[in-house]
C-alpha cells in the first residue's frame, strides 16, 4: 500500500522532467531556426481549431492550428502542423517559415520574437518545476506519515 504513495508521484516527476526536456528542446530549435536557419515560403493548406476542457464547470480552451507546406531548396516537400498561429492567416495564404536544414519538419511560421519565446519558455518551465515540486513534497509527506505511523503502531 505504501508503494502506491511513492510510485504515482514518481511517475508525475518523470512526466514533469519529460515536459521540461521537451519544452527546452522545442524552444532551442525555434531559437536556432530564427537565428541560424533557412527561410522558405509556405502555403497554408488548412486552418482548424481544437477544443479541450468543458467537463463539469471547467472552461473550454480553443486552439487554432495551421497546416503549412513548403519545399526546401533540395526539393523536399515538407508539411507541418503548428498550433497557436496568427488568426489572420487563412487557407491559401503564403507565410515565411523558419527551419533548420537538418530538420525541416521542425519549422515554425512564427515571426522571430526572442523575448516572447523566452517568456513562454520560462512560464512553461516554472509550471513544470512547481508540478515536480508538489510531487516530491507529496512523496516526502507520505514518507514522514508512514514512518511516524510505524513508530506508533506496535
Structure description:
The chain is of the alpha+beta class. The chain contains two helices and five strands, in the order H-E-E-E-E-E-H. Strands 3-2-1-4-5 form a five-stranded antiparallel β-sheet, with helices on one face. A hairpin with a 5-residue loop joins strand 2 and strand 3 (77-83). Helix 1 (4-36) packs antiparallel against helix 2. It is elongated. The model has no long low-confidence stretch (mean pLDDT 93).
Which features would summarize this protein structure in a list?
5-stranded antiparallel beta sheet; 47% helix; alpha+beta; elongated; 154 residues
Q: Determine the N-to-C terminus distance.
A: 18 Å
Order of helices and strands: HEEEEEH
Give the number of helices.
2
Mean pLDDT: 93
| Major β-sheet annotation | 5 strands, antiparallel
Query: Structural class per helix/strand content?
Result: alpha+beta
- Low-confidence stretches are none
Q: Report the sheet-strand fraction.
A: 25-35%
Coarse morphology: elongated
Task: Return Rg in Å.
Answer: 22 Å
Task: Strand order, main sheet: write it out.
Answer: 3-2-1-4-5
Percent of residues in helices: 40-55%
